[in-house]
Amino acid sequence: MDTPFNIRTQKIEGSKEPVAGFYSSVLEGAGDSRDAMEQRGKLFAVVELAGGEGCDLKLAMSLAKNTLSESYFGNLEGTPLSALERAVSETKEIISNLSGDTGSCQISMSLGAVVLWGNVVYLAQMGDNQTLLLRNSSAVTLGEETGGDVKLHSSVLEDGDVFVCATGLFLRKFSVDFILKNSLKIEEEIAAFQENFRLCACVISVSGKVALSPRDFIKIASPISQRSKGLNKRAKIALLSFAFATILSAGVYSINKVKPFAGSARKEVGKEVVTISEIVKEKEINYAKPIFEYAGLSDITVSKVFVDGEEIKAVDFKAGKLWTLEKDGTKVKSEDITGLVEQLPENYSGLAPYLGNWYALSPPLNKIVKITVGSGGFTASDWLKEEGIDLSTSEDLAVDYHVYVLMSDGTVIRYLSGQKTAFSLVSEDSKMTNPTKIFTSAGTKNLYIWDAGEKSVFMFKKDGEFVKKAQITENLKETGVMDMFVIEGDVTEVYLSTTASLYKFEI
Q: What highest taxon heads this organism's lineage (predicted)?
């Protein structure tokens, strides 16, 4: 539900890069569909990471912000408060796992988040970060230091509320009066402080008084026992709060209408055998066309189709184009990727995007190439940092924040920041005969492998634990699966593409 208030924000970041083992950053986001906007509102967060020498805090920050946003807006089950708790907990787990994978590098995280939904505000807090509420003539610090626990708060919004979501050091360094009086030049002011790289905040102002109904008070009810503890600081700041609210920069949000995705599927209850539904029945029609025809697009020759977050992407290497649309097929855009095509390695067998970069697997060259895009175009570099790695029998790769490489014998090698990490698939029931495709993503909870010999999809948890094997009973009309991608939701939908068809089934 969109808020009836006008929202103005100011982001304050002392440093855009990690410094001295610390990195702080602001996240500001909204759902990219009308359903997400109505059910989740707007999300603001301040994240601070701390890690020793050798820790890639920039990568960790990207993972934290990406996980927080995707978890909160990507799963519309439950209330905004429960979704916020889940998103913060999943972000905490991601950073914890990242520390475990790197071994010698331990990363700690503090996080404060503010959600505005209708006439209600929800807050989450973990670690040293805190949120200050400026209301009428009072300044309220919502909670104290929480350590590693996640604490939640909720309240009804009032006209003129100002929230300062910040690192703990920011709120200890600056008084309320200072924040309000120096809002226009506060970034210049923090440059004078020795640890300015740890000074980070997001200031959110709401204005536009609305009448509250009984439902507004019901919205903030929650089974979560954690609630705000009342006032622990007061100041006479009503006039300053009003003045401050008028000078913050306004945020702009866009929403897209969501329509159902086409296709049908059936499953035999209680069995690991599935029935496929062929979406494309006409031969001579490219397998990606039915998806893109929903948006009025045709006559494209697609080399690869994959899911990237909430979007479906199709790569046309011949034309040097990347076509992108929402999962419901409502929004299409194209990009010139001629530069990307030119940077692809020889005889690559796997290609996956992650955080704006591309990762390509080349068994003949025994390497993984990372392709980045900047102001000068696309640039390719060898991504692996270890010597003596044999990828000559590799089949495919997938990327969440790790890079997973599928080998022809069914084993999976996992890498992080170019280094191999401890990982294995664990199950006596997961024997494969001809595995050819692997899929996962940052927004996917599991790992999926297509075995052409078994005509089956194997599902694993991301720690390698076997979940299930789903076997197809019918024969595909065309031999050879070119691509596989999976959409997780109330049911898990698996899509297999061949030279002329796109198949879908549920597992």
A: Bacteria
